[in-house]
Prior knowledge:
Elements: E1 3-8, H1 25-46, E2 50-54, H2 60-65, E3 69-72, H3 78-91, E4 96-100, H4 109-117, E5 124-129, E6 136-142, H5 155-166, E7 169-172, H6 176-179, H7 185-194
Parallel strand pairs: 1-2, 1-4, 2-3, 5-7
Antiparallel strand pairs: 4-6, 5-6
Helix pairs in contact: 1-4
Amino acid sequence: xxxxxxxxxxxxxxxxxxxxxxxxxxxxxxxxxxxxxxxxxxxxxxxxxxxxxxxxxxxxxxxxxxxxxxxxxxxxxxxxxxxxxxxxxxxxxxxxxxxxxxxxxxxxxxxxxxxxxxxxxxxxxxxxxxxxxxxxxxxxxxxxxxxxxxxxxxxxxxxxxxxxxxxxxxxxxxxxxxxxxxxxxxxxxxxxxxxxxx
Length: 198
């Protein structure tokens, strides 16, 4: 199995806007950079082939230093960027794809391994929901085009429905390192208080 991990990112300046009530612009950018570095470090440890799809070329030094490769997104929107990255991966012979968000502070290499291990035999997807059970923080697909990307509000159910509609097997992966994403002031307070236990 040839695996590639894709990490979509809007760029540091556009990231973590919901933290504006508690962090200034510089602090938000610094936090977004720290989170992305952590995810890329873990992704690289779990898999040597890591791509960041982003409209922000300014991320290039951070991405390169983390052992990943930056691809500049041409279209608008998260799903469009992922489609672009998926098309490239398939053209290069990748047989399984993992999508991870860049704001998972407690992600570990064992979480990535668990997501891949959960992939059903043959055609299938493994989905890791966020802590609320509504979003998708991790998605593994074999083959890479097993289902359409449906990231956004309610993406967990949308991805489950996509798998059902495509007739592919699906498994759910519930792990704290995949479930906890840092989006809101409450998330930040919980992480600062509990760290890896958040």
